[in-house]
Amino acid sequence: MSQDLGIVDGLAQLTFLVQGALAKRAAAHDLSMTQVRLLGVLRDRRPGVNQLAALLELDKSSITGLVDRASARGLVTRVPSERDRRAVEVVLTDRGRALAEEVERDFGADVAVLVSGLTDPEQRRLSALASRVIETSPA
Amino acid sequence: MSQDLGIVDGLAQLTFLVQGALAKRAAAHDLSMTQVRLLGVLRDRRPGVNQLAALLELDKSSITGLVDRASARGLVTRVPSERDRRAVEVVLTDRGRALAEEVERDFGADVAVLVSGLTDPEQRRLSALASRVIETSPA
DNA sequence: CTACATTAGTTGGTGTCACAAACTAAACGA
DNA sequence: TCGTTTAGTTTGTGACACCAACTAATGTAG
């Protein structure tokens, strides 16, 4: 019954599955996909609003509200820049970091289930191929 | 430099890449991701609003507006059901079908680029693994 | 040193999209 | 026939995305 969907449909459907799983886990913590990406990006950075807009590929005016809402929930804070009085740094709080890690754990469990039909070597092969595709890509 | 990201991060990042490509192609035709999914689902079905809600995992009240907007653009139509005067069938128009196919072609080109770093056998392997994961999944 | 341009970020306005709750109309069932 | 489901829409709210216009601070040319 192993009907091969082809690389285009295969990848498309796979990504809907995986993104759907992530979206559900995020929603369980009242997070949108964008919020998850925000937390993810902030794990190892403290960017300004403009850099954040570039990283998330959003308009900078979208960042204001995004950070407002996350900030209202105590997930991030705006720290005024030392050197530039116009600028701010958006920083993950401890609470934000903890939530990000929790979502990552939950999502990891989902992925484990998704690929549970593959043998261990197959899982490693899939992981390796995915990594290769990512490396190759512009980002 | 082939740094393996692990199955979780690897799949996550891969899906962001692929979904990003699809979203951009869709946006080029003024389509949201949801609109694309709508057109995709309608390619081989003419579901009612409730079935559509189930297929897209949306509330049925969300379907009304979605179909309204697509219908205003002439991409779909509401056909009153023969047997049940309450019900409608949502049907792809020729214009809608043509647009769906165009987006699919564009997206296919993007995928080809994305996986162009893989050899042909590797691409087939990735496709096969993706298909296996999809089959296994509940849907 | 001042005047102009640039940069950082916010504000205000619009539209999409998602939900929940309430509603209308048709169909079903006892 | 009368109450209950079922199909779909309406109404109201909020997140999110964009653009254009704005404020405030920086930078730079003369």
UniProtKB/TrEMBL annotation, chains A, B:
PROSITE patterns: HTH_MARR_2. InterPro entries: HTH_MarR-typ, MarR/SlyA-like, WH-like_DNA-bd_sf, WH_DNA-bd_sf. Residues 1-135 form the HTH marR-type domain. Pfam families: MarR_2 (PF12802). It comes from the Bacteria. SMART domains: HTH_MARR. This is MarR family transcriptional regulator.
